[in-house]
Structure formats: structure tokens, C-alpha cells
Specification:
Helices cover 46% and strands 19% of the residues. By secondary structure, the chain is of the alpha+beta class. Strand 14 and strand 15 form a beta hairpin.
């Protein structure tokens, strides 16, 4: 039976109380516009809030006529709705024409940890206590523990790696992501292996791997059904049903739930903490501050390198060609014309460098960020606008350097230079 993938759109109970939606509802035919907006959100679920038509290898922006057609909305209403949604900031038009719904990050039920609350269970929590809490609050139990993994039976120390095992129930409150950072599912009867681990240990889909809980010595084998991506934890992922079949001890460490009564469980002896979705986001953003500082430092370093390299290369080029410039002046060529020729050459060389170097930008950024350790596996994408701004910056510096050396041409002492040739 084919394993289906489902996507959800989760609306908070104050969705219609937000300023943007409230304002939209006040408009004539406001209900039609809100329904149109929700239909756009649903269509963007599979692409993280971005709407773009994909025809073969081509990406074609949606026009209002097509949006009206796919949402079943009259064209005049769709045109008015798009104008209002754009004005309210509910829809943004990106540089490539794609439509982006900024609020989808909070509305999407389709990333790794999306539940409203995360209940952390202590190591001494009994399974009966945990099951009773899940019965009361609902939600999904998650087990996270340390393991050792190997590609061979009876491995030596060098043939095994300490990693993390994640066991989920498959209810959608805690998910794993595929290599494109979209939600994916674990195939029943198999395990999924993180991309970084599969790369390091040369593990492929269909291979058999061997693992054991770090606190136990019993080894188990499992067939690899998929490769997934995790930005900061590497290892393997199991469905609870398949994990229990191995006979290994099942010790859940988290309960993911949307029930607000989870807050009242903080005082229980077998609960070590309760975090809301807001707190989890704040913790994640705080953890990403170091990453932001690194990226800022890289941008600053790159800017300094651009200025230094262009200036030094311009200086070397000028000194090597100074006799050529002096000869041109002797032959009657005006300084302004020589300056124009020099500026044009530098401009086109810089443009060629930008075109050749741009494809390496994203690869270099990911390589540097992911070189911080085996546990990191980020998939960063440089926006098109960043490429454009970087290119403009390089061209501006190139032109400024050209003008800087062009002034020397005007002051060039032709006799002294040409005497040096003799």
C-alpha cells in the first residue's frame, strides 16, 4: 500500500481577530477575499508558502487570471483581492514573480516541531504515567536517545559512530524533512537515515545498517527506506510501531501536543519542563544568533576582500601597462579616451567574474556553514536579490577603482616613462 503524505493548515483561534484579516473582512465582499486568501495558502502548503507554477523545468509566475481560475473566484473579485492582500502584507511578490504568504510560517502544519506545546519528560518517567498523560492531553510521543550505528556486524571502534535515534508515532506533530526541507514520512518497516550520516558512512536507500542504544549492548539491524535532512542532529528515525518490534526499550522523552492544559503539567515529578511554541521559536532564534554573526562576519570579510583585491589588481595592471598608456598619449590619444578604455575593460572583466563566480556563492556558503561539525547540515539558499546587490557592489567598486587610477593617466609624465624604456 502506498504511503500517503498529508498537509494541514492550522488556523489559530484568533485568526479572524488579526488586524489584517479584520480589515479585509470589513471590505465589501470581504468574506470572498478571505476565502480566496485561504485557498492560496492551501495551494502553497507543499512549497513553504510560495506560489509558482512549475512546467517541466520552467518556473512561471501565476497571473491573476490563473489564480481566479484555480480558486474558483470571479476575475474582478480576484483582482481586487490581490490588490488588498498585497497592501495588507498578506501576499508579497518576490523578485522572480513568485507569490509568498508571510503568515504561512505560523499557519503551516507541516514542519518538524509544530505543536503548540512540548512537554519534556524526565528520565525516570514510567511508561504508564506517560501514556496516561497522552490519553489526557492527546498529541504525539517522541523518543530521542543516543545510539551507535554501523554498516557492518560486529564493528570495530572505527566502523561505528555515536549518533541520535528519533522515534515518532507518525501523527504529524513531530516530523522529519526530506532533502528539500519538505515534510516527509518514514516508510513502515524501514528506518530513515540523516543525510550527513549517510554521506559520512556511505549509506544508501536499501542498505542494511546495525545499531544499538548507547546504554545497552544489544545490536539490531534495520533496512534504510529513505534519507532525510536535519539541520543540527544526525542519526536515524524510526516509527514507534517498528521500533517496538525490535524489542528495544521504548522510553519517550517528549510529548508534543496542542492542548493548552499542558502548561499545568510543569509541577509533575516526571515532567522536567513545558515549552510553548513561542518559547521554542525564541530558543531557536537565540541559537541562530551565532549563525547570524558568522554570516555577517563573512559578508564583512567578503566586502573587504572585494575592495582589496580590486584595488591591488588595478594597481598591478596600471603599473604593468603604464608604458602602453604613455605611448598612447604620445600618439595623440586624449586622457579621457584612455580613461574610458580602462574603465570599460575593468567593468567587463568584473562582470565576467560575477557571472562565473555567482554559481559558487551558494555552494561556498553551505560548505562553510556545514564545516562547523558533523552534526550540522543546513541547506541555505541565497536569494536572487542578494546576488544582484553583491554584483552591483562589485561593479561600483570596480568603477571607483578605475576612476582612481584614471586620474594618474592625466598626470602621467610621458617623457619620464618612455625614458625608462630606454
Amino acid at each position: 500500500m502506498q504511503n500517503k503524505r498529508y498537509y494541514w493548515l492550522k488556523l489559530k483561534n484568533d485568526f479572524f481577530e488579526g488586524d489584517e484579516i479584520n480589515w479585509l473582512e470589513e471590505q465589501e465582499n470581504g468574506a470572498v477575499y478571505i476565502l480566496f486568501y485561504l485557498k492560496l495558502c492551501l495551494r502553497s502548503l507543499r512549497s513553504d508558502g510560495v506560489l509558482m507554477r512549475r512546467v517541466g523545468k520552467m518556473e512561471i509566475p501565476y497571473d491573476t487570471k490563473k489564480l481566479a481560475e484555480i480558486t474558483g473566484t470571479p476575475l474582478p473579485a480576484a483582482e481586487t483581492a490581490m490588490a488588498l492582500l498585497t497592501s495588507a502584507g498578506l501576499v508579497e511578490v518576490q523578485e522572480n514573480g513568485a507569490l509568498f504568504m508571510p503568515q504561512m510560517e505560523d499557519m503551516m502544519f507541516g514542519k518538524s516541531t509544530i505543536s503548540e506545546y512540548q512537554v519534556k519528560l524526565s528520565a525516570d518517567a514510567s511508561l504508564s504515567e506517560v501514556n496516561a498523560m497522552q490519553e489526557e492531553l492527546g498529541g504525539e510521543l517522541v523518543m530521542i536517545d543516543q545510539i551507535e550505528v554501523s554498516k557492518v556486524q560486529n564493528p570495530t571502534t572505527d566502523e561505528k559512530k555515536k549518533q541520535t535515534i528519533t522515534v515518532i508515532e507518525g501523527k504529524g506533530l513531530y516530523n522529519i524533512l526530506d532533502l528539500d526541507n519538505h515534510i516527509t514520512s518514514i516508510k513502515p518497516g524501514t528506518v530513515s537515515v540523516s543525510r550527513k550520516l549517510s554521506e559520512i558512512m556511505k549509506i544508501h536507500v536499501g542498505d542494511t545498517i546495525y545499531w544499538h542504544l548507547y546504554s545497552k549492548n544489544t545490536w539490531y539491524e534495520a533496512k534504510v527506506g529513505a534519507i532525510y535532512r536535519n539541520s543540527d542532529t544526525q542519526g536515524i528515525a524510526f516509527l514507534k510501531e517498528d521500533f517496538e518490534k525490535t524489542g528495544a526499550a521504548y522510553t519517550p522523552t517528549l510529548l508534543m501536543t496542542d492542548n493548552k492544559d499542558a502548561e499545568s503539567k510543569k509541577t509533575l515529578s516526571y515532567v522536567s519542563g513545558v515549552n510553548s511554541q513561542t518559547e521554542m521559536k525564541e530558543a531557536y532564534e537565540k541559537g541562530m544568533e551565532v549563525m547570524s554573526i558568522m554570516i555577517f562576519a563573512m559578508i564583512l570579510f567578503s566586502a573587504v576582500m572585494v575592495v582589496t583585491v580590486l584595488y591591488n589588481s588595478g594597481s598591478l595592471s596600471f603599473n604593468e601597462r603604464i608604458k602602453e598608456f604613455a605611448t598612447l598619449k604620445v600618439l595623440g590619444m586624449q586622457s579621457a579616451k584612455i580613461r574610458g578604455m580602462l574603465s570599460g575593460q575593468n567593468f567587463w572583466l568584473s562582470l565576467i567574474g560575477i557571472v562565473l563566480g555567482a554559481p559558487l556563492g551558494n555552494l561556498t556558503l553551505n560548505a562553510m556553514i556545514n564545516s562547523n561539525g558533523e552534526n550540522y547540515d543546513y541547506m541555505l539558499k541565497v536569494p536572487a536579490m542578494d546576488y544582484i546587490l553583491s554584483g552591483i557592489f562589485v561593479l561600483i567598486i570596480s568603477v571607483l577603482v578605475s576612476f582612481l587610477f584614471a586620474k594618474r593617466i592625466k598626470k602621467l609624465d610621458m617623457i619620464e616613462v618612455l625614458k625608462g624604456v630606454e
